[in-house]
Structures are given as C-alpha cells and as structure tokens.
Amino acid sequence: MCHFARKGIYNPMDTAVKALRVEQLDAHVLDREIRDIVHSSLEEWISTLPTAFQRYMDRAKPELRLGCEAALWTTRIYAGSSPGQGILDVFYRGYTTRKVAVHFVISVLVPYLLKRLVDWRQDTHRLVERLEGATTLANIAHYLYFLRKGGFSTLVERVLRLRNYNRDAPSMGNVNLDNQNRELLWHTFRDLIVLLWPIYRLAENRWLKWSQKTATSESVDVCPICGEVFVAPVEVELCGHAFCYWCIAAGPSRNSCPICASTPCTLRPARGNRIFPRE
C-alpha cells in the first residue's frame, strides 16, 4: 500500500489513466502552436530593433530560438508535462529531471546542432540530409503504428518510455445532440455550397452570354424609315416592328406597317433594347 493510501490522503496518480490517441496528438499540436507563437513574437521583436542590431540578431537567431525552446521546456521539470499537455490535463508518468534533459537533447538540441553543422561545414550537408530523411521515415512509420495500435505517440517517447496519462479519468458527460445536429447540418450545407457554387457560376456565365447574343440579334439600332437613331420609338402591336414616332405618324403608310403591311397599325411605346440603342 502506498504512503498516501496509508494516511488516507488523496493521490492524483491513483485516478490517472492512459490518455487517448486524440488527446496525445492534440497536445503535440498545441505545443507546436505555442512554439510558433513564441518564435513569431521573437521575429517581431527583432524587426523593431535598429538595422545595425538586426544584422547581429539574424546571425544569432538559431541560438535565440534555442533559448526560447529551453525556456518552454523548463515547465516540464516542475509540472511533469509540456504546455500543450497542461492545457489538456495530460502528463508524463515518471518524467524525472533526467528524462526531461534527455528528451530536450534529442528533440531540440540535436536538430539545432545538425543545422549549425551544415552552416559551419557545407560538406556535411548530404550526410545531414540523409540522416534527417531516415529519421523522418522512421517517425512516419511509428506514427502509422501509433494510429493503429496506440501507445507512445512519438518515436522519442517510445525510446524514453514516456507514456501520456490523464490526471483524472475522462467522463463522457451529457451529450448535447441539438448542438451536434446543428453543427452537422451546417457542415453539410457548407459542403453543398462549395459543390454547387462553381456550377451556378458556370450556368450564370452561359446565361449572360446567351442573353447578350439574343438581345444583340433582336435589337434594332436605327429607324428603318429615316435610317437614324430612334427618336421617341414606337412599335406596331401586331408585328413588333419599331419606328420613330414622327416617321410613321407623318408617313403615307400610317394605317399599316411599312415593312410587313400588317393592319391595323396600332402603335405603342417601344420596349426593351430598342429604347437603348448600342453606342
């Protein structure tokens, strides 16, 4: 029986359970985003310095980033977890100071030294590139194994035997199905819009081209009697031929259409494109 159990003191480790795969991946994502925020803040601070200082800071930028990484890793010593794990209430069991140091060396210090080695000696570029490629391939293979079997989320965690645990047993709680249904409906509606929008734009462009072509073919720019642009255009109700009002009203054939001789020649104001001739 443990020391806490004998004295009747609650030990948080007693309720710790192995973390789910999604929690472990989310913790790594949060750690990466926190690191990116710190690095972007460093970049902004450097950009505010005078130009003469910026040149020196650019040369020492890898060392500055290493210092930021070391500052972030100090939280693991007293918390037993990374900043991302702390947000999700996840921790490493048995995360001693020695393991923190080894974890930092493998995950942060070694990549920094390899990058600096390439900067100092260009002939090592090919060797470092092959080493990084082999490491990336091994990490991808381990990641696929982790998705299938669970366990250690990274290859380094497997080497150091660092397993993620929840401080308290997770509970399902009450599921709000209304919110889930609304979220599902919204995502479905969004996907439908993304699918139909290009079809709508294509149909709209085709319709505009067809309507412009039809309007051009049916439009009459000049009066067939005077040969000039319409002045007070009117059209014959029966056949639709358009003329200037004074041309047909004062002409000899005002009782019938001058073009098709349709009777009776009842006039009305011209509509559509005939009122607005092309420029």
From TrEMBL:
Q: Which InterPro entries match?
A: PEX2/10 (IPR025654), Pex_N (IPR006845), Znf_RING (IPR001841), Znf_RING/FYVE/PHD (IPR013083), Znf_RING_CS (IPR017907)
| Any GO CC annotation of this UniProt entry | peroxisomal membrane
Keyword Ligase in the entry? The reply is no
In short, the EC number is: 2.3.2.36
Q: What reaction does this enzyme carry out catalytically?
A: [E2 ubiquitin-conjugating enzyme]-S-ubiquitinyl-L-cysteine + [acceptor protein]-L-cysteine = [E2 ubiquitin-conjugating enzyme]-L-cysteine + [acceptor protein]-S-ubiquitinyl-L-cysteine
The record's annotation in Pfam families points to: Pex2_Pex12, zf-C3HC4_2
For the RING-type domain, which residue ranges apply?
223-260
Q: How does it sit in the membrane?
A: Multi-pass membrane protein
Gene3D superfamilies given in the database record = Zinc/RING finger domain, C3HC4 (zinc finger) (3.30.40.10)
Q: Does the keyword Zinc apply?
A: yes
- BP term (GO), one: protein import into peroxisome matrix
Instruction: State the family named in the UniProt similarity comment for this chain.
Output: Belongs to the pex2/pex10/pex12 family.
The protein's name is RING-type E3 ubiquitin transferase (cysteine targeting)
Which source organism does the UniProt entry give? Mesorhabditis spiculigera
